[in-house]
Design goal:
Layout (H helix, E strand, L loop, with lengths): L1 H13 L4 H8 L4 H8 L3
Helix pairs in contact: 1-2, 2-3
């Protein structure tokens, strides 16, 4: 399940979605968590 979730988030980043959109889709508590996880993309 984790891999599917990561794949989805990577797809959002690749499509040009902003950090807040990815944060909400992943239900992260803060944008910092999202950036720490997917910032390298």
């Amino acid at each position: 399940m984790h891999d599917l979730r990561h794949f989805f988030a990577c797809g959002l980043v690749a499509a040009g979605c902003d950090v807040v959109t990815v944060q909400r889709a992943q239900r992260h508590a803060s944008a910092t968590t999202t950036l720490n996880t997917y910032g390298h993309l």
